[in-house]
Amino acid sequence: MRTPVFELHIRPLFRATDREHMAFSLNLWDYDSVVANIDDVIGRVDGGGMPPDDHSGPWPEEWVALLRRWKATGFKRLDIGTANFTLTRTATAVTVTATGTFPAPGITGWLQLESETETAKTYVLYYEAPDSPAGGTPDPFTLKEKYRAADTRTVFVHDSAGVRELQ
Q1: Contact at 8 Å (CB) between 159 and 80?
Q2: Is the confidence at residue 23, as pLDDT, over 90?
Q3: Where in the sequence is the domain holding 110, given as residue range(s)?
Q4: Does residue 1 fall inside a structural domain?
Q5: Is 81 exposed, middle or buried (0-12, 13-18, 19+ CB in 10 A)?
């Protein structure tokens, strides 16, 4: 069974109403905040009144079990990677390309839309390490995200070096 990952499996469990009801003490969409308060979070979602019955009701048992398994397996999360980025605009498409070499064997990665506004979109480069170390040499990668050329928003990338605009 796959080890749960915060960004893929845990953060999506926290609905906006859950976050709102816990905002007085922690940010449920922030990894460090959830890890620091995990026992309180588990207690609240496992019959402890979060969220209240008149606001979405209690979590399904499978969600609570997944949260417990994430804790038991060491709070795995994705790493933010590093790459060389290019932005290519043609008459039909805009392509964001990330090239590089994964830091260790067995790591996979992808570009993901992290946020968007009316004027900008930001992609994040995620790396996911395997549950068990892999042998061999790290693989090179080329990752692409493509969208319509009619979308003329400014493009930013978020990698281990920070957030920067692509030209």
Answers
A1: yes
A2: no
A3: 79-165
A4: no
A5: buried
